[in-house]
Write a structure and sequence with these properties.
209 residues; alpha/beta; Spore Coat Polysaccharide Biosynthesis Protein SpsA, Chain A; eight-stranded mixed sheet; 10 strands
């Protein structure tokens, strides 16, 4: 399964310049996502969709990853429009993974779990959510909350879509996961600090990869 990282947002709430290039323990945020994808056996080609707001991100990808990761320029008008443009540019007509650049805690094991769940479902699309209780436990105040069978859930920014139908609304299944690595994306300086602390704990062996 191929993957597209959406990296066109400037990250105004974070206030540190281009969000994908914000450093976390000396590395840009997007590098964590790319390298997790590279270590995920089920993932094939990796693309990064950039916009006029993220020129440094495009330069970093080109310099750091050469042709191993392909950059797709988008207009930066809106997320859905940029995503559709990116998918059409790649020519991918199979199911593909779409995810954000601000999920540095993701692991190959979690992505394999998501892909396995998708392969076992009977829908063309899947969206990954976190229970609001997990977000609250991390001190996160989500912008978007959905009611799912009477439970409040928060979108994670991870989706699987049918590339051949990207211009159409797709019937999807909701996958709700309790993993904090999926719930914690970086929107504020506090989120960045939480990720830093968790990565240091993981490195020390307190949290397993």
């Amino acid at each position: 399964m191929n993957a597209i990282i959406m990296a066109g947002g400037f990250g105004s709430r974070l206030g540190m310049g281009e969000k994908p290039c914000v450093e976390l323990l000396g590395r840009p945020l997007i590098s964590y996502v790319i390298e997790t994808l590279q270590r995920t056996e089920s993932i094939g080609d990796i693309y990064v969709a950039v916009s006029p707001a993220t020129p440094n991100t495009a330069s970093f990808i080109g310099n750091e990853y050469d042709d191993k990761v392909k950059v797709i320029p988008t207009g930066g008008g809106n997320y859905v429009g940029d995503m559709v443009h990116a998918v059409k540019t790649t020519g991918i007509t199979d199911p593909l993974l779409i995810l954000m650049a601000d999920l540095p805690l993701l692991t190959p094991e979690l992505l394999e779990k998501v892909i396995e769940e998708y392969n076992g479902c009977d829908k063309p699309a899947m969206s990954i959510f976190s229970p609001i209780s997990v977000c609250k436990s991390l001190g996160i105040r989500p912008d978007t909350v959905f009611n799912w069978d009477g439970k409040l859930i928060v979108p994670s920014g991870i989706n699987i879509l049918d590339g051949s139908q990207v211009e159409h609304e797709q019937d999807y299944i909701s996958l709700v996961l309790n993993d904090i690595e999926i719930a914690l994306n970086v929107n504020t300086p506090d989120d960045l600090k939480r990720c830093k602390d968790m990565l240091l704990e993981r490195k020390a062996g307190i949290i397993k990869n």
